[in-house]
Design goal:
With 565 residues, this protein is an alpha/beta fold. Helices cover 38% and strands 18% of the residues. The protein folds into two domains: 2-302, Rossmann fold (3-Layer(aba) Sandwich), CATH 3.40.50.300; 346-486 and 533-555, no CATH class.
């Protein structure tokens, strides 16, 4: 009797409210129960003994490979058994499996990769498919290898699997079946010619296009029982193929669309749930209390509440499985204001960031001075006077009007960026008809400048001039890899009161304009395109901090880098 099976009972408990679950978890369970009632008339059949056999394969053949359960038998949790129960129990009239596609979304650390690795090994060996091709796929090879490495370790840890499978560095083979499991990515020269029996796509939210997934789908056509298994956490890009697939799956569960080949279940918070209320977390974390400890989430929550910004976004997406965009208000104004502190910076070493305007906009030069575990920051800004005048003519109340009398805002002649003024402020060098003159009021003369980071874009000539003047100018990348770590560092410093400023109105205004952009890996940077106004001072500050973070160990006495993990 199916009601004695844990997977079937799980569905009943979810639907009857005995297990706290999200709207689309309940609908997935209700879909299963409804299908049992209508299976015969729809040409479907549920085979409980087959489903039990696959679950038994997981229990008897597979082992945990990491953490406190290392080496112990992998007995799937009830929610995992429900997924396996559906994938392997449903059949069509012609004897083929009903579900060829699976979409499972669940929060981090709930065992999703382990589940996928087990499904891949079942496809490689337990399906008994001749010449099966089993793939772990992603846009990047390193991501694709995560699931493969887990499957490889499972083989190594399992006495049963070692008798039948051969785990190598780049593949796992079932010699008697001529079957093979490996990993691939869009970094390969070609993905053509695949004959796919199983495709496992982990962290699908990281895919900016559907290229890899489409190739794998098209490669399934010649197989009798293929499975395209997508498992992921939520992400940030609502234009991604993952978000589109999730919308489609919700429409299937809502009954708006029909697709008997698509299995879907979504472990997530509901729209009106309070994300800070731990009572709701089970919806997104079905392993909570078993494989996942509540204390870990509590700790992450406190950081998200205390630090806000990117920490909050990351907690919602990765631990509560909510699709969100970057926070419009990155750092609240009151948090920034309380960090105002006067200071004498004479003699302190400093690092700088130079964000040059492309043609007629603001150029920002921000110097950072490490001291006492934090930074003092000072900004210098250059604006073409004609540009300022045009802005104020259109909008007399524009904030530019309040900048006009500030000593660190330098209005330059004309309507384009005046590189000569920037050069004079940084190095002191100015070219006059009578020859080159050096002013002693420049930053290089006044402070102990170590390095100034700059964006290569649109900066060729000024960079050459400054280097010729003896300025320690170094290029600084503007991508996620270069910008993420110092951006996160800046956020922590501001929120912990370790970033001190002199009340600079320009910097305060720019910070309020910042909107963050996040990549699928959780790296962040300030987004100039989406931000509501100029953010050049903040970008320059981030570059200065980033350059100091790269400085040799002898400089770390000024600043102990905060652990962001």
């Amino acid at each position: 009797m199916m009601h004695k099976d844990e997977a079937h009972q799980y569905a009943l408990d979810v639907v009857h409210g005995k297990i706290l679950a999200s709207k689309y978890t309940r609908k997935a369970c209700q879909r299963y129960l409804n299908d049992l009632d209508t299976a015969e008339e729809r040409g479907l059949e549920f085979r409980p003994n087959t489903a039990r056999a696959y679950i038994a394969f997981f229990q008897k053949a597979l082992r945990h490979t990491v953490g406190e359960w290392d080496g112990k038998a992998f007995d799937p949790l009830p929610w995992q058994k429900f997924i396996l129960w559906n994938l392997y129990g449903w059949f069509r009239e012609d004897g083929t499996r009903r579900f060829n596609y699976a979409y499972v979304t669940v929060a981090r650390k709930n065992g999703k990769t382990t589940l996928m690795a087990g499904a891949a090994l079942a496809a490689l060996f337990f399906d008994q498919e001749k010449a099966a091709e089993v793939y772990f796929a992603a846009t990047k090879k390193d991501q694709a290898k995560i699931g493969f490495d887990e499957a490889q370790r499972m083989v190594t840890f399992s006495p049963l699997l070692r008798k039948h499978l051969r785990a190598g560095k780049h593949d796992i083979k079932a010699p008697k079946l001529s079957a093979r499991c490996t990993y691939l990515s869009s970094e390969r020269d070609t993905l053509d010619g695949l004959n796919v029996h199983f495709a496992g796509i982990d962290e699908y939210h990281a895919h900016s296009t559907d290229g890899v997934a489409n190739v794998l789908r098209s490669g399934m056509q010649a197989r009798r029982n293929p499975l395209h298994f997508t498992i992921t956490t939520a992400g940030f890009n609502r234009e991604s193929p993952c978000f589109e697939l999730q919308k489609t799956c919700k429409e299937i569960l809502d009954g708006i669309k029909h697709d008997d080949a698509q299995f879907a279940i979504l472990y997530e918070l509901d729209e009106d749930d309070d994300w800070t209320d731990s009572k709701t977390w089970l919806k997104a974390n079905p392993s909570l209390g078993s494989a996942l400890r509540a204390q870990l989430l509590d700790s992450q929550l406190q950081q998200a509440i205390n630090l806000g910004g990117s920490r909050e976004v990351e907690f919602k997406t990765k631990h509560l499985n909510k699709w969100v965009t970057a926070s419009k208000t990155w750092i609240q104004d009151e948090v920034w204001v309380r960090n105002e502190r006067a200071a004498n910076l004479d003699g302190l070493k400093c690092w700088g960031g130079l964000d040059l305007a492309s043609v007629s906009d603001m150029t920002a030069l921000v110097m950072v001075y490490p001291e006492g575990g934090g930074y003092h920051v000072r900004g210098h800004y250059f604006l073409p006077s004609d540009t300022v005048q045009q802005v104020l003519e259109r909008d007399p109340s524009h904030i530019y009007r309040t900048f006009l009398e500030l000593p660190n805002v330098h209005l330059t002649d004309g309507n384009v960026t005046d590189y000569a003024s920037i050069r004079r402020k940084v190095s002191g060098v100015m070219n006059k008809p009578e020859g080159q003159v050096v002013e002693s009021t420049s930053l290089m003369h006044k402070y102990n400048v170590q390095k100034i980071a700059f964006d290569r874009y649109n900066s060729t000539q000024i960079a050459i001039d400054l280097v010729d003047d003896g300025v320690p100018l170094v290029p600084f990348g503007q991508g996620f890899v270069s910008m993420s770590s110092p951006t996160k560092q800046l956020e922590v410093l501001i929120r912990t009161g370790k970033l001190w400023h002199d009340g600079d109105p320009v910097m305060r205004w720019a910070l309020g304009n910042v909107e963050l952009k996040m990549d699928p890996a959780g790296n962040i940077k300030a987004d100039k395109q989406k931000s509501g106004g100029k953010i050049d001072p903040i970008v320059a500050m981030i570059m200065g901090i980033g350059e100091h973070m790269k400085s040799p160990a002898e400089d770390e006495g000024y600043f102990e880098i905060i652990n962001l993990s």
